[in-house]
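ESCALATION

Customer reports they have been waiting on this structure for their group meeting. Please prioritize. Original submission:
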Amino acid sequence: MKCTRCRELAAVALPSHHSAFCPECFLLFCRRMVERAIHDHAMCTPEDRILVALSGGKDSLSLAWLLRELGYQVTGLHIDLGIPGSSAVARRITENFCARHGIALHVLEMEAMGLGMAQVRQRVKRPICSVCGQTKRYFFNRFALENGFSVLATGHNLDDETSRLLANVLRWDADFLADQGPVLSAQEGFVRKIKPLYRLTEFETANLSFLLGIETASAPCPYSAKATFPVYKHLLADLEDRQPGRKLQFYEGFLKHGRKHFASHSTPDLTPCVRCGSPTSTELCGVCRLKAMMTSEADLPEARDNVLDSGQQA
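Update from on-call: job pushed to the front of the queue and completed.
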């Protein structure tokens, strides 16, 4: 099989694009897909200070590499979740990557804040993945705002976005469908959030990180056994095998034809959290309620059941 672009021996076949690429041309393909995503949705400019949420996985590290190659001002933020057997590896890989590529890195330690996920898991009745996700979104957004970053970039790929879209459609969750997209605009209490990898699949980011020689944390989180999104990913992967290109068509079709029907959907009124000032639909935001519960300020069954907060951006 020959490269579609240069006719050299191909290394990566992409049925969804009716193409195959040699390593050099595949890197160019990925670069152009990200450039197109940024251009089409006016995600950022060279003047923006971009904070990249770095987990240590293939997507976020590849994103940091691509944005830096494209000339953007990139800084990394890693959240050490304090998960035994997982967090230490992810942190080491992230630190090594940033040192190798000259990317400034900040690390927030959840255990030092009393919010290590191993401890939270013992106290909270709600699904730990939901609590963990909200905690990460809170600290990524707060760090960006407090340190003068104009954009927060995350490594969500096409598989992430389509599985989330399918889940929201199956539930007809109008609140989340209204916010679904590769850009969440800045608003009071929220920095602009972008997803430049949304046109690349998980298969493509995996090949990209491999060809770049990026070491990645590939072991699944030990707490994710009951996560629901992998179910939708598997369903869409089966569909993609039968109909190559269907995932991108599904997502782009929603952006072009579906999202506008949810744009006017009313969202809860948000007010500043009385403790930290972050936008929330209740008196205390979800993370402040979690902190209170972890310090036994609200060690009651109703507190353990009501950690999540609808005021957080997805």
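Sent to customer with the following note: The chain has one domain: 31-218+228-266.
Escalation resolved.
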